[in-house]
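FAQ

Q: What does a record look like?
A: Structure on top, sequence underneath. For example:
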């Protein structure tokens, strides 16, 4: 992985299948070291900045624990702790932080922001999530699938729900890169951007992958994994809930849908999930629309086929691999 040193990690489109495999191998090795209690402070004394314009439990904890395990110090900048894009331009912020820190993580809005940070900072920049892409999540998903099945090439993954944004986009890219069969199962207006679809189909042809789209849930038959995400993304107005519920309710992941896929199928979710009424948003949606779960039923979420918490743990191991390889 030496060729990734001092390079940024912005989107999976920038990496070759060999790069992705190398990061998964490194993550697997670092995971084994952590489980065995073997120290791996490869970057002792380095410092990283974590910019969070959108808050997160898993992404923040993953970056912080990974940084500490690698021997690094980190500074967390929440939405009120940085002047990025407000009093100070992105380019100026990048040049300031790049002189103080050895690496910068960004989680927030447009992909152009993280790309501009990388252009001006002079140090590796890591994409913790943008509106368009979520590459650290996909690395965790791929590692989890590889751990479960023993391989990636040829696995069929069906994404049910709104596939227009970072998760649908990034899963499609990841599957195309790794020779998998990706299916977006949703109404046509919720499919990814046509230009990205064209690019992913070209990549898929190079790697023996398949990219499909369907409005019919029968497409889950034979799937190795069914993946879903919340129907309304962070930063979107509450006014879109009614439309999303109306359009996406037929694509909720239920026990019947899992049975249709087959006993080999696992359930995946990037979290957080509205699978019950134990959140304020879940209770509000129940009071307003009368549904006790949204994108997935509690029965599926808590079932033996669910590997969502394995994914959540692997966020830390794969993020650690990204930082270790690029610094």
């Amino acid at each position: 992985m030496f060729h990734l040193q001092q390079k940024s990690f912005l989107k999976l489109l920038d990496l070759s299948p060999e790069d992705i495999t190398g990061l998964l191998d490194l993550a697997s090795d670092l995971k084994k070291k952590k489980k065995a209690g073997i120290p791996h402070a490869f970057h002792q004394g380095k410092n990283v900045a974590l910019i969070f314009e959108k808050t997160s439990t898993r992404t923040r904890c993953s970056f912080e624990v990974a940084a500490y395990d690698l021997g690094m110090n980190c500074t967390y900048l929440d939405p009120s702790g940085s002047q990025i894009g407000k009093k100070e331009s992105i380019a100026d912020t990048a040049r300031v932080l790049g002189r103080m820190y050895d690496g910068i993580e960004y989680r927030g809005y447009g992909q152009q922001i993280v790309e501009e940070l990388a252009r001006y900072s002079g140090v590796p920049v890591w994409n913790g999530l943008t509106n368009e892409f979520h590459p650290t999540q996909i690395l965790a998903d791929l590692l989890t699938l590889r751990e479960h099945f023993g391989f990636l090439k040829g696995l069929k993954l069906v994404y049910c729900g709104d596939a227009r944004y970072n998760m649908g986009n990034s899963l499609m890219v990841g599957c195309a890169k790794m020779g998998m069969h990706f299916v977006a199962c949703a109404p046509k207006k919720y499919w990814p951007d046509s230009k990205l679809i064209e690019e992913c189909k070209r990549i898929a042809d190079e790697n023996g992958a398949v990219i499909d789209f369907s409005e019919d849930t029968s497409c889950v038959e034979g799937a190795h994994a069914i993946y879903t995400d919340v129907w309304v993304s962070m930063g979107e107005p509450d006014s879109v809930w009614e439309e999303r519920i109306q359009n996406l309710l037929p694509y909720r992941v239920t026990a019947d849908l899992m049975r249709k896929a087959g006993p080999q199928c696992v359930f995946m979710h990037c979290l957080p999930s509205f699978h019950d009424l134990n959140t304020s948003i879940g209770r509000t949606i129940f009071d307003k629309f009368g549904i006790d779960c949204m994108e997935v039923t509690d029965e599926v979420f808590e079932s033996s086929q669910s590997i969502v918490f394995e994914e959540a743990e692997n966020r830390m191991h794969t993020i650690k691999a990204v930082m270790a390889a690029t610094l």
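Q: Is there anything notable about this one?
A: The first helix runs from residue 17 to 36.
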